[in-house]
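Deliverable D5.2: sample structural annotation.
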Amino acid sequence: MQLTPMLESFIMHFGEMGSRWGFNRTVGQIVALLVISEEPITANDIADALRISRGNVSMGLKELQAWRLVQLQHKPGERKEYFQACGSIWEMANRVFEERRKREMDPTLTLLRDILLDKPANGAEQHAQVKLQEIHDLLEGISKWSTELQRLGPDKLSTLMKLGSGVGKVLDLKDKLLAKPSNS
């Protein structure tokens, strides 16, 4: 597969962004290539297109399969294994969010819950528990909110995003109205 400069630019950028999303650079490049490919492609074709080793491709594909972002496909009459991105961009983003929540937020919330169940031994631990409760509440709220956003589906989420700052303005107006003293 020969990449045009435009496609190569996207893939290289996606590789750099992948490290910020929980993947290494190579894995980010592999998923980017699979997302933009019209047809499923072999590991050898991936290695050639990205100019990386077949071993790197194999490890990257295994990681992407663990994240449920890539699926293996066989073509009738061929022994080669082909790979393609799993589902729509929306479905893939949801899988990444879900995996990141499981790998990062859930263990942190579990640790915080355990610590908060302990009786503080002194004033320093009591103060720390107050701060840890704030962290717990924030992470719990973010986790619940992100779960609700994932349930909306792409069309409703798109509508919500278009509302954007309008929601903030409504909430600001509500705060102003509630802050005004009544004239009774």
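Annotation notes: The chain has a mean pLDDT of 90. The chain has two domains: 5-85, 89-165.
The annotation will be released with the project's public dataset once the embargo ends.
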